[in-house]
Design the sequence.
């Protein structure tokens, strides 16, 4: 299996074939923040927090490291002024939904993100998709999924499936950065499970 | 109909068709594209058919429903051949007169002709009408000449001769080389060189490859692809088969939006006809080349016009785009090499093969060769589809072809490129239409939608409109697009409602930068363009909204008031009766006053006030004048001179 | 919609990978909405989890998960119509019917939807009711057209 030689933050990194930049960085102990990434799941590329600057073949551009393939002679910079600025704005957009999320607050401190920059939103789901993807890819039960699109996109439990599968599982609960998942589950359970209060 | 099994059989069959047709035979062509149908074209066509039959002329006169010739403002459009007499806004009631005077007596029905608004002159022949005179209708020109549901008509105008040439006189490499040499750039919005895209797929090691027609045409205001697919579906099909041959693909898909039922019907019919005649299927024309095509309908999602989202939709999933780090011409549909091109791009291919790349490059600019079809819509006199050589100026399109702005209003901006594009102001009207020039001006060519705006259009509202459109159409997967647009929509809406504040513009610019740099796909990356271009050229309007709470175009409902000028009101009671919320106080001979608390700013009063009075005004940024005292509201009778 | 018809529609597309959306479009076209049982049956036959079908049925605007009114009113909000005043047409329609886009009134008379471009830009602003296009509308004209429907 051929090796790929790159530079990340000045450090020489050797990546395996088929690795993403994020995987390469993690294998070398270099930290890149993530929100929607999970080692058991296919890369999602939704939160864009793992965005980094890469330079190759004379051009410099920003790419999302969890999906960008490692490349020979790639130069990666995980913290630049632009990268920091974008991460800050992304966090502020998320904090409008979930200002109390411990994970978001920790990152907010690091990047100087202001949780009151934007008007508060009603839903504290941040669309990382960890719950939906875990249930589909790891448990293969598909008891929770997305509905709709754009700004109306939400997660939704399938009441018939959730009532059968979730009480013995709930493995997705600790994955949720905002606890919206638990709230959505409780709501579905009390209103929509077969035999629920009508 | 037995399958045509060799180029010789095609030539013979074509000659047979032509020998049965006489170019001097009168032919009545009635446009039955969706636009004209909505104006009653099918009744006009039916009237012609029954009328001709009643006169016993069915054997001597052809009557056909044809594809869209583009002059949509004046539909239903009827062209009588061979004289090429063009009648506009034809109604079923006009048909008997046309049959008698034009078909039988060979005379012209004057009142149905085009009238030049400047000279008052009538124009008889289609090609002399200013709308058409300045166009170069290489691709869409055949629409009015053929029955869109007849493959024989397509063969009669030379259809499928390019396919025969490509399959039997050229190698697949030669076809690719010719398309590369022509520098044909994608007509769907990206402007990527088609030949290079084809080459990438051709060279990819995976054996199974696909070619796709993107007929999703989601840009609001753009309907070029609809007209092509409805009006001349075989031209698109022929280009697709040639492309498949060059790339080495044996399976193709046409992805059509379901909002175009006639296009879906006609392309399905065209495919069945092409299979029947032997232009599709196994061993096409005995060359050993196999190729089949299927039609997939869109289900109402603008994002599926994005190439990777379209492929995801073809796989039966939600239209979520994929990152372009791995190019889809290498790994696309089902992870296989896929060439996706726009309807108009494919329709250009038979022309390039038949006439050669050199012919194609003779038209256009250095970087943009050939012609482009635009849908010229909005505040323009001649709304419709225009095909022009690249390099023509925006001014010529809008004024020479489009006939300028109606109602004596002033031009303000022309928006190109749909929700990914920008607004170009009056100072830049000499800009040549060219992929790179439009990019430099802060807009883009896009699929060809060209929306003309006048002094009554609020540019802040235009930005808000496009951002709002995308909040609904965004797939919602990535954060910068979904959340960035959510916030931009909110801020822009506040501004149009008079709630804008200091710092809003800077925040919008920051969100724009985030979306451009970090979005997953082109929808997100180009979403800020309408905002960025309007801020660049119309900053004063933003400032007026934010600082003065004033809408200079008198358009934003929350910032305008309707006011009846007591000096002009003649108390005719028309607006009073029509007001849907009974907000107008007054009576016969008593000057009307609008109750500002009740007024919903619907605009009915200004619309119905007789033009000779012109008493209703819109005001913005200033308080409504206090009502005149009661006793002054009564209009005295005019004293007659000799009393 | 009877279950035989649903089976027939699924059979017509059998074997085609990626036929899910086309099947749902055919059901929507005939039935004017997608009942839950239809979605479950499609999921069973195509081996697709119901959560994915639910996402598809809500992602794509051609589908309706609830029954529609007698008259489907589509108001074009494309850019060309917008510039010619489509917003006022929508407001008028909302005021008269009492419903917003995506909704159906209580008497099941009107279902209101906005669409992004019907391709009749020369006739803008445009409203399509039961497949019939009404063009060159004004707020007053819109009221007249809607009142003419039973």
Sequence:
């Amino acid at each position: 299996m051929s090796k790929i030689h790159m530079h990340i933050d000045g450090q020489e990194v050797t990546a395996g074939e088929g690795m993403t930049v994020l995987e390469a960085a993690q294998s070398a102990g270099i930290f890149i923040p993530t929100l929607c990434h999970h080692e058991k799941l296919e890369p999602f590329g939704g939160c864009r927090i793992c965005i980094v600057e890469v330079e190759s073949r004379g051009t410099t551009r920003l790419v999302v490291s969890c999906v960008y393939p490692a490349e020979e002679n790639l130069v990666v910079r995980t913290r630049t002024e632009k990268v920091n600025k974008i991460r800050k704005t992304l966090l502020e957009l998320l904090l409008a939904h979930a200002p109390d999320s411990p994970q978001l607050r920790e990152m907010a401190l690091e990047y100087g993100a202001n949780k009151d920059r934007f008007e508060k939103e009603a839903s504290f789901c941040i669309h990382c998709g960890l719950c939906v993807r875990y249930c589909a890819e790891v448990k293969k039960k598909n008891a929770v999924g997305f509905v709709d699109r754009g700004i109306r996109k939400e997660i939704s439990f399938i009441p018939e499936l959730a009532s059968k599968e979730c009480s013995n599982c709930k493995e997705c609960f600790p994955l949720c950065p905002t606890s919206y998942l638990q709230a959505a589950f409780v709501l579905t359970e009390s209103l929509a499970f077969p035999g629920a209060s009508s | 109909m037995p399958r045509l099994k060799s180029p010789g059989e095609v030539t013979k069959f074509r000659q047979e068709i032509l020998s049965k047709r006489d170019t001097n035979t009168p032919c009545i062509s009635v446009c039955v594209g969706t636009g004209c149908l909505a104006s009653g074209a099918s009744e006009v066509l039916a009237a012609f058919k029954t009328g001709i039959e009643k006169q016993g002329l069915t054997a001597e006169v052809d009557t056909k429903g044809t594809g869209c010739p583009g002059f949509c403002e004046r539909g239903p459009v009827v062209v009588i051949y061979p004289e090429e007499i063009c009648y506009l806004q034809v109604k079923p009631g006009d048909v008997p007169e046309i049959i008698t005077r034009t078909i039988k007596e060979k005379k012209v029905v004057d009142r149905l002709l085009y009238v030049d608004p400047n000279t008052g002159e009538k124009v008889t022949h289609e090609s002399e009408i200013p709308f058409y005179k300045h166009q170069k209708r290489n691709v869409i020109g055949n629409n009015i000449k053929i029955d869109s549901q007849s493959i024989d008509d397509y063969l009669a105008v030379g259809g499928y001769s390019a396919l025969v040439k490509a399959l039997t006189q050229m190698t697949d490499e030669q076809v690719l080389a010719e398309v590369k040499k022509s520098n044909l750039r994608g007509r769907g919005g990206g402007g990527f060189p088609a030949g290079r895209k084809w080459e990438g797929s051709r060279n990819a090691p995976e054996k199974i490859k696909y070619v796709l027609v993107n007929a999703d045409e989601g840009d609001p205001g753009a309907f070029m692809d609809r007209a092509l697919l409805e009006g001349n579906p075989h031209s698109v099909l022929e280009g697709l088969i040639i492309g498949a041959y060059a790339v080495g693909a044996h399976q193709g898909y046409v992805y059509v939006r379901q909002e175009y039922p006639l296009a879906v019907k006609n392309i399905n019919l065209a495919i069945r006809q092409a299979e029947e005649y032997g232009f599709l299927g196994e061993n096409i024309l005995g060359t050993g080349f196999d190729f089949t095509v299927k039609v997939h309908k869109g289900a109402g999602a603008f994002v599926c016009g994005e190439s990777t989202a379209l492929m995801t939709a073809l796989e039966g999933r939600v239209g979520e785009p994929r990152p372009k780090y791995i190019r889809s011409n290498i790994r696309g549909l089902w992870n296989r090499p896929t060439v996706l091109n726009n309807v108009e791009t494919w329709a250009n291919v038979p022309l390039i093969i038949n006439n050669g790349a050199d012919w194609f490059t003779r038209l256009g600019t250095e970087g943009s060769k050939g012609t482009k079809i635009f849908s010229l819509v909005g505040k323009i006199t001649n709304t419709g589809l225009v095909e022009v050589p690249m390099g023509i100026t925006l001014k010529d399109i809008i004024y020479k072809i489009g006939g300028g702005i109606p109602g004596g209003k002033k031009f303000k901006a022309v928006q190109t490129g749909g929700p990914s594009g920008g607004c170009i102001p009056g100072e830049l009207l000499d800009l040549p239409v060219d992929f790179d020039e439009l990019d430099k001006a802060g807009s883009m060519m896009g699929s060809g939608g060209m929306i003309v705006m006048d002094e009554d259009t609020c540019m802040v509202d235009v930005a808000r409109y496009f951002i709002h459109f995308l909040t609904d159409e965004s797939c919602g997967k990535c954060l910068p697009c979904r959340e960035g647009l959510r916030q931009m929509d909110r801020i822009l809406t506040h501004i149009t409602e008079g709630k804008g504040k200091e710092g809003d513009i800077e925040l919008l610019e920051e969100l724009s930068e985030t979306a451009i740099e970090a979005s997953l796909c082109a929808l997100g990356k180009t979403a800020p363009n309408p905002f960025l271009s309007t801020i660049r050229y119309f900053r004063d309007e933003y400032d007026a909204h934010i600082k003065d709470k004033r809408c200079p175009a008198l358009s934003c409902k929350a910032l305008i008031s309707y006011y009846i000028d007591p000096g002009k009101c003649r108390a005719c009671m028309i607006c009073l009766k029509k007001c849907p919320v009974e907000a107008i106080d007054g009576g016969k001979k008593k000057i009307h006053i609008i109750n500002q608390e009740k007024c919903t700013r619907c605009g009915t009063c200004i619309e119905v006030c007789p033009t000779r009075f012109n008493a209703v005004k819109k005001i913005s940024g200033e308080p409504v004048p206090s009502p005149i005292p009661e006793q002054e509201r009564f209009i005295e009778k005019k004293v007659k001179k000799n009393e | 919609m009877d279950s035989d018809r649903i089976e027939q529609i699924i059979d017509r597309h059998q074997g085609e990978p990626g036929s899910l959306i086309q099947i749902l479009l055919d059901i929507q076209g005939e039935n004017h909405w997608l009942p839950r049982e239809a979605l479950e049956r499609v999921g069973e036959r195509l081996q697709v989890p119901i959560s994915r079908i639910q996402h598809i049925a809500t992602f794509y605007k051609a589908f309706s998960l609830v029954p529609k009114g007698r008259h489907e009113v589509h108001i074009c909000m494309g850019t060309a119509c917008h510039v010619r005043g489509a917003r006022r047409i929508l407001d008028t329609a909302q005021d008269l019917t009492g419903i917003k886009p995506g909704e159906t009134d209580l008497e099941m008379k009107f279902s209101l939807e906005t669409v992004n471009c019907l391709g009749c830009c020369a006739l803008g602003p445009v409203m399509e009711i039961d497949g019939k296009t009404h063009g060159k509308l004004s707020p007053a004209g819109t009221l007249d057209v809607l009142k003419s429907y039973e």
Q: What stands out?
A: Chain B has five domains: 17-129, 159-361, 371-457, 460-547, 561-633. Residues 561-633 of chain B form a domain with the Alpha-Beta Plaits fold (CATH 3.30.70.20).
